[in-house]
Amino acid sequence: MSGAVLGKVIRRIRLERGMPQTELALRCGITQPYICQIEKGRIPSDRALLNIIDALDLDPADLPSFSRGREK
To answer: Three-state SS string across 32-65, please?
Structure first.
């Protein structure tokens, strides 16, 4: 999964949950601008991705192809 696809998935799920970027950032311990960059296609750090998965209450298996084909 490319960074752009991952970002779109994160944004869609965040919006479905009615969560602003600022709230997601606060729950993840990262900045709102970093959330914005991720949603625009930046590949998050492993820690940030795990925090986003936790904050959005996702099953890590929801993104299996991303973990196998990580871009640098």
So the answer is: HHHHHHHHCCCCCCHHHHHHHHHHCCCCHHHCHH
